[in-house]
Amino acid sequence: MSDLSSSGSTGETESASKTLRRLESDEGGESCCDDPILESRRADDETVAAELAVFKTLANEKRLRIVEALRDGELCACELEAILDAPQSTVSSHLSRLREGGILNTRKEGKWTYYRIADTASLQLLDLAAALGDDS
């Protein structure tokens, strides 16, 4: 019985990509993967980390509900508790995470803290996500 993925008569197997590279080099051509432009297409670690932090911050149902509630303007924490029908401690932890992620800003007025969307780019991102979700 012959092994279709064997290389030569040694009986060793090779990966499909290695086989393709070997065949291309046998033809005297360069590998498509030798293109120097590939390195310039690699995302830098800082950019990926920043993007990942935003998506992790938004990847929670209650946090998304908070952002949606704030779409039309600022609300105080107690109003958000009522909207989410969640205890103060739960809402507080989600609000902290959204502030740390740069999604929300706050304003103090007396003993009340009001929350608002820090940048409309967050809302645009959610609009885009909703549009992508509608296409499936």
TrEMBL record:
Q: Where is the composition biased (Acidic residues)?
A: 26-37
Q: Name one GO molecular function term.
A: DNA binding
**Which InterPro entries does the record cross-reference, listed alphabetically?**
ArsR-like_HTH (IPR011991), HTH_ArsR_DNA-bd_dom (IPR001845), HTH_MetalResp_TranReg (IPR051081), WH-like_DNA-bd_sf (IPR036388), WH_DNA-bd_sf (IPR036390)
A Pfam family of this chain: HTH_5
Q: List, as start-end ranges, the regions of compositional bias called Low complexity.
A: 1-14
Alphabetically list the UniProt keywords: DNA-binding, Transcription, Transcription regulation
Q: Which residues form the HTH arsR-type domain?
A: 43-136
Q: Does the keyword Ribonucleoprotein apply?
A: no
Against PROSITE patterns, the record matches this protein to: HTH_ARSR_2 (PS50987)
- Disordered: region residues: 1-37
Xref: CDD domains:
HTH_ARSR (cd00090)
NCBIfam families attached here?
HTH_metalloreg (NF033788)
This protein is called Transcriptional regulator
Q: Tell me the classification of the organism that encodes this protein.
A: Archaea, Methanobacteriati, Methanobacteriota, Stenosarchaea group, Halobacteria
